[in-house]
Amino acid sequence: MSLWTAVDAAAATGGRAQGDWAAQGVSIDTRTIRPGDLFVALKAARDGHDFVADALQAGAAAALVSRIPNGVAPDAPLLIVPDVLAALEALGRAGRARSDARVVAVTGSVGKTSTKEMLREVLSAQGRTHAAEASYNNHWGVPLTLARMPQDTEFAVLEIGMNHPGEIAPLSRMARPHVAMITTVAAAHLEAFEDIGGIAREKAAIFDGLEPGGTAIVNADLETTPILLEAARRVGARIVTFGAQSEMYRLHSAAISDDRTIVRADLAGQEVLFKLHCAGRHFAMNGLAVLAAADALGADAGLAAPDLARWQPPRGRGTREVIVLDGAAAEWTLELIDDAFNANPTSMAAALEVLAASTPRDNVGRVAKGRRIAILGDMLELGPDEADMHRALAGLPHIAALSTVHCVGPRMRVLWEALPRAQRGQWFEGADDLALKVHDMIDAGDVLLVKGSKSSNVSRIVDSLRRTGRRARPQIRDD
């Protein structure tokens, strides 16, 4: 079955279709386009119309355009509309309207993508599941996900993000979720809001799009929980809470070891024990929220709980891997925790807890005792109190368990100066400077955390390690 025929797409968008084509997918990028896709010529850093000829040459079924681009035949298979983004939104709304899928939408300052991927994992075992790719959670990512949704989808998982006020509600109304979840509220993108209460109110706008009788899933452990609950009540949602303070989906304990978390929880009166093949209390909380969502969607939470063990964090969001430092000596390895995609005070504290719980190996490298080392990049978009927020990291309890903390970026300079001298490593203005020297700062047996906001570019340090070392095949234990 085709995803979109020329007739259906024209009816959905109000556009004019050229040719009798049928698309099997929807793409916005000629680098990843597949034969049979409908290419959407969005305007971003470049005008997508400049790539329509390439898309058609690569086998695109048609292109969604606002004009016939240069180099494209007048009778080429096209869908011509006044505004391409507006047409993509209309296509997304039509994709949602024709589907009987049970839809869950996820937002939160931390954990959106990880939670979305957990949901994909557990729901896929119980029905045909469609979920957003990567972090496709913005004004084009949400409609693109909806436009790509097969008609026979049973469960749909959407991620909704924001940088500024007023972004979430329109996307939620487009998605019309049956279940809307807020993972947590933290000081992320704070420079666009007066305070964390403003962030909470924007996150709570996800409830505005709930279908009648829909479920709002709320973290019970937050300072801003009352704001979230009030927003859910205002729209008449059924409210489900999760967390250590919840009376519904309660976290009793999360035992963190090197590469796993054993979670004991109460699911609406039923005691459960489930395992995650990654370390972190924050992952345990996300897993608990996933089980609450699965239950609200009509899936079997009891079956979903053991399925969480199959999930692994996406690259850059807490991925653990072994890097071979010397190909001639198999034991010369270090463990890398790649958390280089984003950062705020809450996620920094969670990542440092994971590092503190890790176990370095002794007597395998130049340094007899294995070390816990952190490389921390700037946390961005925190507003006028950003210096205080960076400095406060030095007072986190898990810092004491680390051997060395290296810092990257002008904002992290204040943390570097606040660290105890025994733990103060080196400070670098930029990630590229540190990447050139990182191999002199590590040793076999170490556990290394790399974390920072995406724009701090600390991922380049991770890339340097992967290029000059060798990534070992990850091992997933079943015990």
From TrEMBL:
It is an enzyme of class 6 (ligase). Keywords: ATP-binding, Cell cycle, Cell division, Cell shape, Cell wall biogenesis/degradation, Cytoplasm, Ligase, Nucleotide-binding, Peptidoglycan synthesis. One of its GO terms (biological process) is regulation of cell shape. Its EC number is 6.3.2.10. Pathway: Cell wall biogenesis; peptidoglycan biosynthesis. ATP binds at residues 108-114. It catalyses: D-alanyl-D-alanine + UDP-N-acetyl-alpha-D-muramoyl-L-alanyl-gamma-D-glutamyl-meso-2,6-diaminopimelate + ATP = UDP-N-acetyl-alpha-D-muramoyl-L-alanyl-gamma-D-glutamyl-meso-2,6-diaminopimeloyl-D-alanyl-D-alanine + ADP + phosphate + H(+). GO terms for cellular component: cytoplasm. Residues 106-294 form the Mur ligase central domain. It is found in: Cytoplasm. GO terms for molecular function: ATP binding; UDP-N-acetylmuramoyl-tripeptide-D-alanyl-D-alanine ligase activity; UDP-N-acetylmuramoylalanyl-D-glutamyl-2,6-diaminopimelate-D-alanyl-D-alanine ligase activity. InterPro entries: Mur-like_cat_sf, Mur_ligase_C, Mur_ligase_C_dom_sf, Mur_ligase_cen, Mur_ligase_N, MurCDEF_CellWall_CoF430Synth, MurE/MurF_N, UDP-N-AcMur_synth. Residues 24-69 form the Mur ligase N-terminal catalytic domain. It comes from the Bacteria. The keyword Lipid metabolism does not apply. Residues 335-453 form the Mur ligase C-terminal domain. SUPFAM superfamilies: MurD-like peptide ligases, catalytic domain (SSF53623), MurD-like peptide ligases, peptide-binding domain (SSF53244), MurE/MurF N-terminal domain (SSF63418). Belongs to the MurCDEF family. MurF subfamily. Involved in cell wall formation. Catalyzes the final step in the synthesis of UDP-N-acetylmuramoyl-pentapeptide, the precursor of murein. This is UDP-N-acetylmuramoyl-tripeptide--D-alanyl-D-alanine ligase. It comes from Pelagivirga sediminicola. The lineage of its organism: Bacteria, Pseudomonadati, Pseudomonadota, Alphaproteobacteria, Rhodobacterales. The gene is murF.
